[in-house]
Amino acid sequence: MDLSALLARARVLRSRARTAHDAARALRATTLNQRHLIAEAVRRQPARRLARSARGGSENRLDGLPETPDRRCPVCRSDKVKALGYVQAVDGVLKSEHVCEVCERRFVLLRNSPTFLRADAADSES
Question: Considering the entire predicted model, what is its pTM?
């Protein structure tokens, strides 16, 4: 093959790659939008929430994630973390799902909950 044929082939391949990249980016944007719309619909409709729970969709999504009492990533120790909005109260401790903005790992931030949420505090008062 001569040089002009190689350059023409490279241009064709680059064009195909750019087209595939643009299609993948558009598909990802559409998927993220649909996931957001579905999540909003589930939040607004209690019946959908109950149906999801009946299907077994209420498993503990915090299981298996590293836990830390510090507001920093337990993996890379960065303090650039963002709350994901999922919070759970377990045995007087609030567990909230966070993600590190540096290494993009999810983890659980542990916080002490107010005494009115604790089962042992209610028992000790009586």
Answer: 0.45
